[in-house]
Amino acid sequence: MSREGWINIALILSLLAVPLWAQVADEPFLITLSTRVAIFALAGVGLNLALGLGGLVSLGHAAFFGIGGYAMGILASHAQSYAPILEVPLLIEGTKSMPVIWLTALLVSGLVALAIGALSLRTTGVYFIMITLAFGQMLYYFSISWPAYGGEDGLPIYTRNNFPGLNTLDPIQFFLISYVILCIALVFISLLTKSSFGLALNAARQSVRRVETVGISTYRVRLTAFVLSGMMTGLSGALFADLNRFVSPSMFSWQTSGEIMIFVILGGTARLFGPVAGAALFIVLEHLLGGISDYWLIFLGLLLLAVVLFARGGLIGLLAGSPSRSG
Amino acid sequence: MSLVLFIEQVLNGFQFGIMLFLTAAGLTLVFGVMGLINLAHGSLFMIGAFAAASIAGWTGSFVLAIMASLAAAAAAGALVEVAVIRKLYDRDHLDQVLATFALILILSEGTRWIFGSFPLYLNIPSYLSGPISLPGGIQYPLYRLTIIIAGLFIALCLRQLILKTRIGMQIRAGESDREMIAVLGVNISWLYTLLFALGAALAGVAGGLVGALQSVQVGMGEPILILAFVVIVIGGIGSVKGALVASILVGLTDRLGSILMPEAFKLFLPPADATLMGSALSSMLIYILMAAVLVWKPTGLYGVRV
After folding, report:
1. Which of A305, B3, B29, B40 could bond B103 through an S-S bridge, CB–CB 3.0 to 4.6 Å?
2. Whether the predicted pLDDT of A251 surpasses 60
3. Optimal mutation site among B87, B287, B288, B293, interface A, most CBs of chain A within 10 A
4. What topology is assigned to A3-320 in CATH?
5. Peptide linkage before B131 cis (omega within 30 of 0)
6. Which SS3 state, helix, strand or coil, does residue B267 take?
7. Which residues, at least 6 apart from A46, have a Cβ–Cβ distance to it below 8 Å?
């Protein structure tokens, strides 16, 4: 196995080991931090599909993160008030069941990603960056000005949603749920990368003309990747909302998009476990530097600048050397 | 809704649009000539506003405050260009986005560190405060009218600078072929720094002028940055003329949308629902406008590049 492979295994095992140790040592806060890492990593894994593999620099992934969050918030708030979401033409009721919420989050964020992607992918390069950003802002302002679900104040949910057979309020059990979902997503991405679809996406990033020449529509390949990417980030949004038992428009804010991008970049763009490493590093930095100074974002900014200017492989790149990429 | 209110909102839309133009002009010039996407442009707007508010608090002079906003933003722009931006011209857009996002974090938190989290206030000077009577019996704040005129004047100066001066000629030449003008003996790196500082100064002045209308605080630059992006996407990236047209369009859409949309919904909805729907939709209106322009013309109104 390559050096990067070993680092990946060490990384994913330590993400499991830390909260298990914390459970034994009775440090619930560490478990919550690890859960945040797993959830942010999932959001990053989603973005990495579009950004790393597809070369689609989306600065609007907060849209999907927020939609996932609000899917959870809206379903759960209706369940706790016993008021159906819709009565005509058909009865739709709220729910506290996590699997149903996840499916809804996947479905809705997928549909929104389809709409945003279909329009944005008409453009390339810098236009694409700005348009995805603008769509994110559109949803952000909508969530602020629409008062039915808390508007600017956000929407608290009083108890965590249920998963059959588990006690989700127990931090370690909720961590395990998030962790397993993250692992499934990683396996999915690694299979996808090796599939003909993944190869086409990778090739489309490098040369549109060559891919078109062999008869593959790059627009479709990219749109599919964008939708899958949005769905994963949407799912992580639903989990994040469940972790905090709170959704607010800040999930839609463009700083969120920037942060998701930071997870990907700090860890190493286009590397399977890059977002995991990046999210872990982000949370550790937030915790350590945030303890030293209120202005820890200055240090994060300087670090990010250093990574972009001097260490483009990110954390995994530093540890594992440059990737053995063919072509 | 009365005609007076309508005209007032049209003027407000113009004022908003002109300020957007000052911010967007630098962004679009820097993109057109250097091929750089600069997220930190909003921070330069913020620096202008903070410089104006602190100098006004110190000296009490509004004119000095605006000059300070110009100087501070230009200096910050030149500094940032030499220290960081210069290394990004040959990088891809992703690196530019990330590095300038990092600059936002540094500049915003740095400003918060120096000035604290509480907003500063910049007062409108007494000779510009109060309303002025326009033909037709419309009362309009003199300060906002001054901003419109000052902004149009700056836009005119910019046009003259780009079309009539030697520097402007070099800027236009750089836009079409940067290697060529370097070969012809123009000091490219100096020209880039100058252009970046010019864009920063425009954003800074806009920050200073707007600072008297809203509170001056950290994070004030980002909403305007995103609107400036919308403007240059609609106008066509790299086109100053497109930026001017799109700025006015966005300004008018935003201000008129917020009063017209609720009214329009009242035609077929009960008033409470209409206000709700109208205000929610009007907050998204400019993004809808942008999406529409893109479907129609993917490179913007005046864009040429694909």
Report:
1. B40
2. yes
3. B287
4. ABC transporter involved in vitamin B12 uptake, BtuC (1.10.3470)
5. no
6. coil
7. A61, A64, A185, A228, A229, A230, A231, A232, A233, A234, A235, A236
| A196-208 average pLDDT score | 90
Residues B69, B200 contacting (CB under 8 angstroms):
no
- CB distance A122 to B295 below 8 Å: yes
Domains and CATH numbers, chain B: 3-296 (1.10.3470)
Residues in contact with B197: Cβ distance below 8 Å, sequence separation at least 6, in sequence order: B74, B75, B77, B78, B81
| Burial (0-12, 13-18, 19+ Cβ within 10 Å), A310 | exposed
Whether the complex's predicted ipTM is more than 0.90 is answered with no
Residue A110 has which token pair?
Answer: 């997928």
Reference B151, options B18, B254, B241; nearest CA is B18
Element counts in chain B: helices (H) and strands (E): 12, 2
Instruction: State how far the Cα of A285 lies from the Cα of A291, in Å rounded to an integer.
Output: 9
Residue of chain A whose Cα is closest to the Cα of B113 = A295
Whether the per-residue pLDDT at A327 is higher than 60: the answer is no
Q: Which residue has the tokens 């949370």?
A: A283
Q: Minimal CA–CA distance to B144: which of B19, B5, B298? A: B19
* pLDDT value of position B264: 82
> How many Å apart are CA A143 and CA A141, to the nearest integer?
5
Give the span between the Cα atoms of B252 and B233, in whole angstroms. 17
Residue of B nearest to A258 (CA): B101
Taking alpha carbons only, the member of B40, B42, B195, B28 closest to residue A127 is B28
A263 contact residues in B (CB cutoff 8 A): none
CA distances (Å), B267 to each of A120, B32, B259, B262, B279, in order? 33, 45, 14, 9, 15
Return the domain boundaries, chain A. Answer: 3-320
The pLDDT tens digits of the residues spanning B101-114 come to 999 999 999 999 99
Positions in chain B short of pLDDT 70: 1, 304-306
User: How many Å apart are CA A72 and CA A94, to the nearest integer?
Assistant: 9
A47, A124, A131, A208, best to mutate vs chain B, most B CBs in 10 Å:
A131
